[in-house]
User: Fold this.
Amino acid sequence: MPAIAPANRIHPLCYEHHSEMTVRELSSSENGVAYDCKEPHCFVSYSRSDGYFLNTQNQFIIKRCPIPPHQYCAHDRYPMYLLEVQPEHPNFRLWRCPHCSMSRLGGQLT
Ligand SMILES: [Zn+2]
Ligand SMILES: [Zn+2]
Assistant:
């Protein structure tokens, strides 16, 4: 496995399934990478430039699914990704900026 700089290696979680998403190369640029949920029938995707979005043109599916959460970094306004959830704390959300790696806590631990 080639070593990849930590700043370039992110592991977004699907906000629906809380499972790690798989990388999909769009182009050779740094922003040309999207992440897809690997669960069947899940359209949740994430890219550094757009944040979370639903990877479908099907309006029926888009209307049926919850609106993708959008957390923006207070520092550089990049869309943040879901870094960590804790099953024992359903409201707990740890978000991270893919650009400056700043973290933000959402929800409560109770
Ligand atoms: Zn999913
Ligand atoms: Zn940032």
Q: What stands out?
A: The longest helix spans residues 59-64. Strands lie at 22-25, 33-36, 44-47, 51-54, 81-86, 89-96, 103-106. Helices lie at 59-64. The chain has a mean pLDDT of 87.
